[in-house]
């Protein structure tokens, strides 16, 4: 009888220890990429959550999951439709781009004059 009492008491104590799990101010967010890779990114609890995140396995863009399904990306359609050129624009200054363009044009003219480019 004494053995049974002791066992019950230990059990009751361990049930209580589950409280206080959310000690840190972080939360993990699920993303799913087009290849069905599920991955989790941890953010600080007060961070603004991004709608998308680069997949950790294939570098595709994963979409944030909420309540078990992908969030709607309606608001960021414009971003998804960005062209490679847009992204180049963001990364380079205008001066750099003009230099690059001049370089490309010069190369095109050179090749055209050599008869290697038909247009
Ligand atoms: Zn992936």
Descriptive account of the structure:
- This protein is of the alpha+beta class and 119 residues long.
- The protein has 2 domains: 51 residues, RNA polymerase-binding protein A (Rubrerythrin, domain 2, Single Sheet); 33 residues, no CATH class.
- Helix content is 39%, strand content 21%.
- The chain contains 4 helices and 5 strands; from the N terminus they run αβββββααα.
- Strands 1, 2, 3, 4 and 5 form a 5-stranded antiparallel sheet that branches.
- Strand 3 and strand 4 form a beta hairpin.
- The radius of gyration is 28 Å and the shape is elongated.
- The termini are far apart.
- The structure holds zinc ion.
- Zinc ion binds next to loops.
CATH topology of the largest domain: Rubrerythrin, domain 2
Number of structurally distinct domains = 2
Into which percent range does the helicity of residues fall?
Answer: 25-40%
Terminal Cα separation, in Å?
97 Å
- CATH H-level name of the largest domain... which superfamily? RNA polymerase-binding protein A
What's the gyration radius in Å? 28 Å
Helices and strands, with pairings:
Blueprint: H1 2-16, E1 26-32, E2 38-44, E3 52-54, E4 61-66, E5 69-70, H2 77-80, H3 84-91, H4 94-113
Antiparallel strand pairs: 1-2, 1-4, 3-4, 4-5
The structure holds zinc ion.
Residues 33, 35, 37, 55, 57-58, 60 line the site of zinc ion.
Essential attributes:
binds zinc ion; Rubrerythrin, domain 2
Question: What's this, in brief?
Answer:
By secondary structure, the chain is of the alpha+beta class.
